[in-house]
Write a structure and sequence with these properties.
237 residues, alpha/beta, six-stranded mixed sheet, four-stranded antiparallel sheet, 10 helices, 35% helix, globular
């Protein structure tokens, strides 16, 4: 479904990704773990076509099409949704406006399409706050809105960058259950996460990233739990 091959990416002259490669299969949840500063956020921004960073080399292929140098809106229209680190909702717009402004018809054959009403079924709290400005929402509510907004393009792949960041345990449980439901629906997800427990619960396969975006370990959640050396060396666990 998605293939990233030998990607090189920079912030100005800082070389962040030096030959990063990975694949996400149809219906797979791929977890990407690593210490801070290894390039995880840079990678998902590069896939989503968000600048900075600047991609200097390598290819990104989506369902057989080279999307390496497409604009972010062109990538989104092909069915790749993006939930950025830090939520980045449109603070001056209401909850409903945040969802409506990005709505797109499905770019592929799928089951039930995403709509505002369907997002509210997943996140009833958003319906309660539907006329509120996004900047007035709590951190957890903003994370729900960021996920709902990404779903409104009717993606077949969701890029998620640290969805658990800064969340209270009760909200984290809601997000976890939501992501499990999305996984059960067959949605492919590339999950960048610092919360090891969440990644182990959700991912079908895990990658560990080291300096300059190097993938240094690959395996299942059970294999990672059994590999104390890998967790200690690359995650500090």
């Amino acid at each position: 479904m998605l293939t990233v091959e030998n990607v090189q990416a920079y912030y100005d002259t800082a070389h962040i990704l030096d030959g990063t490669s990975l694949e996400v299969a149809t219906g797979e949840v791929l977890g990407l773990l690593g210490r801070n500063g290894m390039g995880k956020t840079t990678l998902v921004r590069t896939i989503a076509g968000v600048t900075p960073p600047r991609q200097a080399d390598g290819t990104i292929t989506w369902q057989g099409e080279d999307i390496t140098h497409l604009e972010s809106y062109e990538i989104a229209r092909r069915g790749i949704g993006y939930v950025p680190q830090g939520r980045r909702v449109f603070g001056s717009l209401s909850v409903v406006e945040n969802l409506d402004v990005i709505a797109r018809p499905p770019a592929h054959d799928m089951g039930e399409a995403w709509s505002v009403e369907r997002v509210f079924e997943f996140f009833p709290r958003l319906e309660e706050r539907k006329t509120s400005l996004a900047r007035t929402l709590s951190g957890g509510e903003q994370q729900m809105l960021a996920i709902g907004r990404a779903l409104m393009i009717n993606p077949s792949l969701l890029l998620m960058d640290e969805p658990s960041e800064g969340l209270a345990p009760i909200i984290l449980g809601i997000i976890r259950d939501t992501l499990l439901s999305l996984k059960g629906s067959g949605l492919s997800i590339l999950l960048v996460e610092q919360n090891l427990g969440l990644a182990l619960a959700l991912a079908d396969r895990l990658l560990l990233m080291s300096e300059h975006g190097k993938i240094v370990w690959e395996g299942t959640p059970d294999e990672l739990k059994a590999d104390q050396m890998a967790m200690s060396t690359h995650l500090g666990v």
